[in-house]
Amino acid sequence: INTKSGPTKDIHLREAMFYAFPYEQVQEVAFQGMAAIPTGPCSPPGQGYEAQKELLGLCAQDMDRAKAALKKSAYPNGGVKLLCYVDTGMQDNMQAAQLYKQALKELKIDLDVRYIASDVAYTQALDKNPPQALYIVEWTAFYPGFANYALMKLLSDSAYNLTYWQDPKVDDLCYQALAAEATDYGKSAELVAQAEQQARKGFNYLWVSDAEWRMATAKNVES
Description:
Blueprint lengths: L10 H10 L2 H8 L4 E2 L10 H10 L6 H9 L8 E8 L3 H15 L3 E8 L1 H8 L8 E3 L10 H8 L13 H14 L3 H15 L10 E2 L12
Parallel strand pairs: 2-3, 2-4
Antiparallel strand pairs: 1-5
């Protein structure tokens, strides 16, 4: 979520958006059951995911909390239009955005959902006043670990942090997690979960889904 410009600079509006997201419906409809409800930047299986789940629980839609948050915002009665980008061709993410659009109608928030080429979206995202309120992207780890999830998405100066949110406490926890990952995997997982817990205070992200990936193989291929 864009925390730098436009209506979503308002933290209470972002909080309303967080609780309005239809997590269960997105997994069932957009991803046809081939996904898990997220807890944060780390996906299942693994210690990172379990540490997040224990500390934060699963994300869940709560329209009562969404409405209460909206009342504290600069848009207590809604009436705001938000631009949402989805990478071209990502049908499941587009379906998720459309389901979200329907949920936000209950708050009288209009989500303008559009496909966009990722290079165009990233170019616009670097503007002083980026036009998007939300940008739905997909992400996977650069290596078989999970500290890089936090580094790429939560770190203040990361090129992939398109929320523009900056928090020195989050940065410190991310670097601690990276340092611990080589020698104490469990400790690193706890630190990533703590980084997410701290970052979530700004309601700067919506974790849409932990999607499953399946591949067809010949019957004679053994693992």
